[in-house]
Amino acid sequence: MENFSIKKLSKAFDIEIDSIASDKSISHRCAMFSIFSNETSIIRNFLTAEDTLNSLAIVEQLGAKIKRDGSYVEITPTSNLTEPSDVLDCGNSGTAMRLFCGLLASVNGSFVLSGDKYLRNRPMKRVADPLRSIGANIDGRENGNKAPLFIRGVKELKPFTYHSPVDSAQVKSAMILAALRATGVSKYKENELTRDHTERMLKGMGAKIETDNEGFINIYPLQGHLKPLNITVPTDPSSAFFFALAAAITPNSRVLIKNVTLNPTRIGAYEVLKRMGVEINYIQKENIYEPIGDIEVKYKELNGVVVEDNISWLIDELPALSIAMSLAKGKSLVKNAAELRVKESDRIKSVVTNLEKCGVSYTEFEDGYEIIGGSLNKACINSHGDHRIAMSFSIAGLVCDMDIEDVDCILTSFPNFKEILDSLRD
């Protein structure tokens, strides 16, 4: 699947989807957090994509016993993590590399984290420097900024008080994981709430993590083992958003997406679509670890929008939102989104250069862009090896023919994306 062509839809669609990829963020964490228990964790609907399977393989290299039947996974941890004899391959996943940095920082042994050519070119100092400040021993290429990263675990990390200069769930999660094995209570603060799956899941397993009146997350060191996970991973709202976008840009169309995490930090993009005029309805269900439910999206005419707050809640969906902005009436503005430049690609540059090929007028800023909406023209798109760029412009192809280059990257997060995309024509 090196590239493919998308043809314009000839009719509206009304569809229910229950086969969208499981949540990648939660699947990664299920694999990692299982090793904090001394009993077998049971994980249903684990995402069987390259990135998350790499995390599962790393946990196995660290000594855990894995039983897997499709998306059903049992993880039985070892009493002491094993020093691996080979490199720990994170594939294309910045989440895996950054979180394993925090997890392994206090584990006795030496560890090398690496990945594909795209991951090896992504900056890691934003996680490595805070960890180094509490005593972690982490090195890598370009003065410790690029993978492969070498970690020599420190038995006792210092407790810390850290106010992060960047709002990043990956940085926060790495610091929380390190804090679990520190010698005292650690405190972490962010300016804007980022994805909180790490806090929710660890608390569900019995970890003591509390937020105080000053906004600091207080992380208490582990006293023994945590309870094992027993979880069904919900649908990934970031993956589901591509089909919410499809309904939003295809006249008279509707989609109902089943069993999605409705965590407030994960549905910000749906709220932006709602502000643009799209009809969005949430149907809540019960779940222990995460709020889950169904999301209904119905086409309405799109209007321009300003996006400058809670950017950390939108960082994965902004490329797809940019397609909606390009088809909306008036101007749309994205600001305070410099984080986009350090994702799988420089997503600001990837978005605007590909939109330019589609005939869209824009202004690029260091931390965002302005788009003048109207229409999209057929183009040949370069994904730059970024799965979200590839999928966003694939959805754009539903309103104008589109050729997408380098789409193998889609397999890292959403193996059946093309299958569901094709089903819209049935």
UniProtKB/TrEMBL annotation:
Binding annotation for phosphoenolpyruvate: K24, G94, R122, Q170, R347, R388
Matches recorded under InterPro entries: Enolpyruvate_Tfrase_dom, Enolpyruvate_Tfrase_sf, EPSP_synthase, EPSP_synthase_CS, RNA3'P_cycl/enolpyr_Trfase_a/b
Catalytic residues (UniProt): D316 (proton acceptor)
Record has Transferase as a keyword: yes
SUPFAM superfamilies, A to Z: EPT/RTPC-like
Compartment(s): Cytoplasm
Domain Enolpyruvate transferase: 19-421
Pathway: Metabolic intermediate biosynthesis; chorismate biosynthesis; chorismate from D-erythrose 4-phosphate and phosphoenolpyruvate: step 6/7
Positions contributing to 3-phosphoshikimate binding: K24, S25, R29, S168, Q170, D316, K343
The reaction(s) this protein catalyses: 3-phosphoshikimate + phosphoenolpyruvate = 5-O-(1-carboxyvinyl)-3-phosphoshikimate + phosphate
Cited function: Catalyzes the transfer of the enolpyruvyl moiety of phosphoenolpyruvate (PEP) to the 5-hydroxyl of shikimate-3-phosphate (S3P) to produce enolpyruvyl shikimate-3-phosphate and inorganic phosphate.
Family: Belongs to the EPSP synthase family.
Protein name as catalogued: 3-phosphoshikimate 1-carboxyvinyltransferase
